[in-house]
Design a protein that fits this description.
The protein is mostly helical. It is built from 4 helices and 2 strands; from the N terminus they run ααβαβα. Helix 1 packs parallel to helix 4. The longest helix has 11 residues.
């Protein structure tokens, strides 16, 4: 199985709320950020970030150095939107 093709297909055919891992707000991830008291200039990478709202929540808190890595180009494009 080609994983890249698989994930591109997921993000091309399903909306964000149709997948089982969808969260409107990434509560657990943001709790970890707060627990570790990360400074606003910390480098944060969301691996397998897809089109999650983690980046949005980080930006809302004032974080600047945020990176998203995902195998799916479709996921990255949806995240940019």
């Amino acid at each position: 199985m080609d994983h890249k093709i698989h994930w591109n297909n997921i993000y091309a055919t399903q909306s964000e709320n149709e997948v089982s891992w969808f969260q409107p707000y990434p509560k657990t991830s943001m709790e970890f950020v707060e627990l570790f008291n990360l400074p606003l200039h910390a480098n944060i990478i969301d691996i397998g970030g897809g089109d999650s709202h983690f980046v949005d929540a980080l930006l809302d808190k004032g974080y600047k150095n945020i990176f998203v890595l995902d195998i799916s180009g479709n996921a990255i494009e949806r995240s940019k939107e």
